[in-house]
Design a protein that fits this description.
The complex is a heterodimer of chains A (419) and B (245). With 419 residues, chain A is of the alpha+beta class. Chain A has helices at 3-13, 15-47, 63-70, 83-90, 118-122, 149-155, 203-209, 226-229, 252-260, 272-282, 284-315, 317-325, 330-371, 382-408, 411-415; strands at 55-59, 81-82, 95-107, 110-115, 124-125, 129-130, 133-136, 144-147, 162-163, 166-167, 182-188, 198-202, 213-214, 217-218, 238-239, 241-246, 267-270. The chains are: A alpha+beta (419), B alpha/beta (245).
C-alpha cells in the first residue's frame, strides 16, 4: 500500500473535517480571486472609460476636475470656454477631429450632453471600441436626442419617444424645457462607461432650448416656439469642454502647451490617461484596502488549515504511532502530514478556482448591466497559477507545524494511548 | 581470569544464533524519576516466553525497551545479534520492523484501512520482510485465514471488526514476512479465557510455521500453559523511583 493511498484513505476517514477544510480554503480562494477581479476590473473599467482621445480641453481647472466633469459627468465646470477659442483650437493644423461637450441640463437625473454627431463617431472606450447604436441613429433634426443604454433601459425609452429636458443638473429642479420636447432618435449600445448614463442632444439644441431663458429662468413674457427657433442663429456662445484627436501623437505635448498657454482665455488641456491615473491614485486607498482584505482572507484560511491539522493530529496520535511501530520513520510521518496538508490545500485551491469561474460566468452580465462594471472572463493565466502554487506551498508549510509536532512526539507517547 | 572468562562467555552468548534476545543490566527512567532496571533476560530462538507481572508493573516499558521504542539509559539489549540500544534515528525504525512483529495491547490497527491492508503495513516499510514474501496479498490472506478471519472480512475496514477479530488481524500483521521475534503486550486482556486460549493456539501454530520466538507480557497466570517458559518480571527487573510505567 503506497503512502499516497494511506494518506488518501486517512483523509477519507476524516472526510467531514477534510471537506469542511477544503471548502473553507476554496471559499477563501474564490473570495480572494473575486476581490482581485473586482479590484482590477474596476481599475480596468475605469481606465477604459475613454480611449483614442488625445486631449481634453476645458476652462482652467485641475486635471482631475476636468476629467470628472467632462468624462464621468461628476461635478460641474467652474467656467466654460468661448466658442471663438473652441473654433481657434478646432482650426489648428494638428487637430484631426474635435468634439465639443456642453453640460448644464439634465433629464430625470441623467446628465444632458450637448455635442455634435461627431461624438458618436470619435468617442472610443475599452481599447479603441467605438460607440454603437442598438436602435435608431445619431440626431439629424434639431430636436432629436440619443440616449445611453442605461437611460433607455431604466426609463423604458424607445426610438420615437418624446422627452423633456430640465434646466440645471439637480433632480426635480422644476424648470422644464417642456415647450421644446425632444424625440428619441437613437439608443446607444451598452458600454459600461458614463456614456450609458447620459442623454445626448445637438449643440445647437442646447442653444435652442435656452433662447428664451436667462439666468436660470424663463424670461418673463417671452416664449419662442420651437418652430421659430429653427430659423434663428443657434451658434453656441460657449462650450464646457472639448475632446480632441490629433493627427500625430508626437504633437500632443506641444499642442497641450499651446492650449495651456493660450492668451485669449485661461484653458487647460489634459491627457486622459494621465488624468485617469491621477484620479485612480486618489481612490487607490480603497484598492489597497481591498488587497489587504484579500490577503487577510487567505491568511485566515491557512490558519484554519493549521488549526484543523493540529486538532486532527490529536486524534491521529495513534495512527502515527502505529505507522512508526511498523517501521515508518519520523520523516515518513512528517511527509505524510505535509502531503496531506498539501493535498487539502491543492483541492481547496482547485475547487476555489472552479467556484470563482462559475461565479464570474454567473455574475458577469449582471455586474455589467447593473453597475457598468465589465469583468473579462480570462482563461486561468500565470497569475491564477501563481496564486494556486502559493496556496499549495502555503498549505505544505502550514502542514509543517503539526508535522513537526508529530516528528518530535515519541513513539511511546502514541503507543501509550489506550482508547 | 575470572573476569575475562565471564566476558568471553557473555560475548559468545550475545552472538549465539540460538539467542533471539539478550538483555544485560539495562535501565530506563521516565521524566520524574520513575523507571525500570533489568538485570538479565534471555529469549531463545523459537522459544515462547510469558513475562508475568502486575498491571502498572513496567511490562509495557519492558517491551518498549526491547522494541527500541524507548532507549535505555545504560546496558545492552541485543536483538538477533544487534544491540538495539545503540541504533539511532531511522536505523532503529528499520531494524524494529525487520526483526519484530508487534501485537499491542489495544491491537493498534488503522481502523479506516481494510483488514488485509493492515496486515500489509509492515511490508511497506521493511524490505527484508517484503523480500521473504513472493505474493504479499496472498500471504496476508493466508495468515488471516489461518488465524480464523473469514475471507469475507478481509476487505472490511478494521474498525468495523469485533475485538477478537481485530486481535487476529494484529497477529497476522505481526507475523507477515517472518520476523524473528513476536512481541505481544497483553493481547488477550480483552478476551474471555476460552477465546484467549483459542487465540494463543492459533498464534502458536503460526509461530511454529514461521519459526519465530514469542515474548508475551501479561498479568494472567492462567495463560502459562501455552508457553515454553514463564518469567516473572520481579525476578529479572526492579522498578526504580516511586512507580514503574
Amino acid at each position: 500500500m503506497s503512502l499516497l493511498r494511506l494518506a488518501l484513505l486517512s483523509l477519507w476517514n476524516r472526510r467531514l473535517t477534510a471537506i469542511l477544510t477544503i471548502l473553507g480554503i476554496a471559499l477563501s480562494v474564490t473570495l480572494f480571486l473575486s476581490v482581485e477581479k473586482l479590484r482590477t476590473g474596476a481599475r480596468d473599467s475605469f481606465a477604459n472609460t475613454i480611449s483614442g482621445t488625445d486631449l481634453i480641453v476645458g476652462a482652467r481647472a485641475g486635471d482631475v476636475q476636468l476629467l470628472l466633469y467632462s468624462v464621468f459627468r461628476i461635478g460641474n465646470a467652474t467656467n466654460n470656454i468661448t466658442w471663438e477659442s473652441y473654433q481657434d483650437i478646432a482650426g489648428r493644423s494638428e487637430v484631426d477631429w474635435i468634439v465639443p461637450i456642453s453640460l448644464g441640463d439634465s433629464h430625470r437625473g441623467y446628465r444632458v450632453v450637448g455635442t455634435t454627431p461627431g461624438f458618436f463617431e470619435h468617442y472610443r472606450y475599452r481599447r479603441d471600441t467605438g460607440l454603437r447604436f442598438t436602435d435608431g441613429e445619431a440626431f439629424g433634426d434639431l430636436f432629436d436626442t440619443v440616449v445611453g443604454a442605461d437611460v433607455a433601459r431604466s426609463l423604458g425609452y424607445a426610438v420615437g419617444d418624446r422627452i423633456v429636458v430640465s434646466h440645471g443638473t439637480g433632480r426635480g429642479t422644476g424648470a422644464e424645457h417642456d415647450d421644446k420636447p425632444f424625440r428619441v432618435a437613437g439608443i446607444l449600445a451598452k458600454t459600461g462607461t458614463p456614456v450609458d448614463r447620459a442623454v445626448y442632444v445637438g449643440l445647437e439644441a442646447i442653444e435652442a432650448i435656452h433662447v428664451d431663458w436667462q439666468g436660470g429662468g424663463r424670461v418673463e413674457g417671452l416664449q419662442i416656439p420651437a418652430e421659430r427657433v429653427r430659423n434663428m442663429d443657434l451658434t453656441p456662445k460657449t462650450v464646457t469642454a472639448a475632446l480632441v484627436g490629433l493627427k500625430s501623437r508626437i504633437t500632443t505635448f506641444r499642442f497641450q502647451r499651446f492650449v495651456n498657454e493660450y492668451e485669449e482665455e485661461p484653458m487647460t488641456a489634459i491627457l486622459p490617461g494621465v488624468a485617469l491615473s491621477n484620479l485612480w491614485s486618489l481612490v487607490g486607498v480603497a484598492e489597497r484596502a481591498l488587497s489587504a482584505v484579500s490577503i487577510m482572507v487567505i491568511v485566515t484560511a491557512l490558519l484554519g488549515l493549521v488549526t484543523t491539522l493540529l486538532a486532527s493530529l490529536e486524534e491521529r496520535r495513534r495512527e502515527m504511532a502505529i505507522l512508526r511501530a511498523n517501521g515508518a520513520s519520523p520523516r515518513t510521518v512528517m511527509g505524510l502530514l505535509t502531503a496531506e496538508s498539501g493535498l487539502i490545500a491543492l483541492a481547496g485551491a482547485v475547487l476555489g478556482l472552479a467556484f470563482y469561474y462559475i461565479l464570474l460566468f454567473a455574475l458577469q452580465p449582471l455586474l455589467d448591466a447593473r453597475f457598468g462594471l465589465y469583468l473579462k472572463v480570462d482563461i486561468p493565466g500565470v497569475r491564477e497559477g501563481a496564486i494556486l502554487a502559493f496556496i499549495v506551498l502555503a498549505g505544505i508549510v502550514a502542514g509543517l507545524v503539526p508535522a513537526w509536532r508529530a516528528y518530535r512526539r515519541s513513539l511511546a507517547d502514541g503507543m501509550s494511548i489506550r482508547s | 581470569m575470572r573476569v575475562k572468562s565471564a566476558r568471553t562467555k557473555r560475548f559468545s552468548r550475545l552472538n549465539d544464533p540460538e539467542h533471539a534476545l539478550n538483555i544485560r543490566d539495562a535501565a530506563f527512567s521516565w521524566e520524574g524519576g520513575f523507571g525500570i532496571e533489568i538485570a538479565d533476560f534471555d529469549l531463545l530462538a523459537r522459544e515462547r516466553v510469558l513475562l508475568l507481572g502486575p498491571s502498572g508493573g513496567g511490562k509495557s516499558t519492558f517491551l518498549n525497551l526491547v522494541a527500541g521504542i524507548t532507549t535505555p539509559s545504560r546496558g545492552r539489549i541485543d536483538v538477533l545479534g544487534t544491540d538495539i540500544a545503540r541504533l539511532r534515528g531511522s536505523k532503529v525504525d528499520r531494524f524494529r520492523v525487520d526483526s519484530f512483529g508487534i501485537i499491542f495491547q489495544m491491537f493498534n490497527l488503522l481502523p479506516w484501512v481494510s483488514a488485509l491492508d493492515n496486515v500489509l503495513v509492515p511490508l511497506r516499510f521493511s524490505k527484508l520482510r517484503r523480500a521473504r514474501v513472493a505474493d504479499a496479498r496472498g500471504e496476508a490472506a493466508r495468515l488471516l485465514g489461518a488465524l480464523g478471519i473469514d475471507a469475507t472480512l478481509h476487505d472490511q475496514r478494521a474498525g468495523t471488526l469485533s475485538v477478537g477479530q481485530q486481535q487476529r488481524v494484529a497477529a497476522a500483521r505481526a507475523l507477515i514476512g517472518g520476523p524473528g521475534i513476536i512481541l505481544a503486550d497483553e493481547p488477550t486482556s480483552a478476551l474471555d479465557s476460552a477465546n484467549a486460549r483459542a487465540f494463543l493456539d492459533l498464534l502458536g501454530a503460526e509461530l511454529e510455521a514461521a519459526r519465530a520466538a514469542l515474548l508475551m507480557v501479561s498479568h494472567d497466570e492462567a495463560l502459562a500453559g501455552s508457553f515454553d517458559r514463564v518469567v516473572r518480571l520481579d525476578d529479572i527487573a526492579r522498578a526504580t523511583g516511586s512507580a514503574a510505567a
